[in-house]
Amino acid sequence: QVQLVESGGGLVQAGGSLRLSCAASGRTFSDYAVAWFRQAPGKEREFVARVSGHGVYTRFADSVKGRFTISRDNAKSTVYLQMSSLKPEDTAVYYCAAARINSNNAAEYDYWGQGTQVTVSS
């Protein structure tokens, strides 16, 4: 079992920045890829970014490429999503998830956090 807890969400103006954190407990953290997904009201959950177990490989959705970065500190069992140049369309509940494989597909992820709300005002 892996338990995930997100933090760092909030209200920010367009053009601003936020850093989300995903703190994990349980199994060996470096065995798991971690991804961020988001879900806006009335929309399906979508992939945002992911990082491999040792932090070497990252992938981003086209919509956030160049604005978001993802990193992890395995000593702290934490993954970070640094979001910059935020837009109103980034407003959503952001979830982190963990899996033993690297994937953009939410169905491949076994463990999920409870989500954190990000609201970007125009």
What does this 3D model show about the protein?
This protein has 122 residues and is mostly beta strands. Helix content is 0%, strand content 52%. The protein has no helices and 11 strands. Strands 2, 4, 5, 6, 9, 10 and 11 form a 7-stranded mixed beta sheet that branches. The protein has a 4-stranded antiparallel beta sheet with strand order 1-3-8-7, with no helix packed on it. A hairpin with a 6-residue loop joins strand 5 and strand 6. The radius of gyration is 13 Å and the shape is globular. The N and C termini lie far apart (40 Å). The model has no long low-confidence stretch (mean pLDDT 97).
Summarize the structure.
This protein is mainly β.
Give the tally of β-strands.
11
Helix content: under 10%
Q: The biggest beta sheet, please? A: 7 strands, mixed
Helix-and-strand structural type: mainly beta
* Low-pLDDT stretches: none
- Proportion of residues in β-strands: over 45%
Can you tell me the overall shape?
globular
- The termini sit apart by 40 Å
What is the average per-residue confidence, as pLDDT, rounded to a whole number?
97
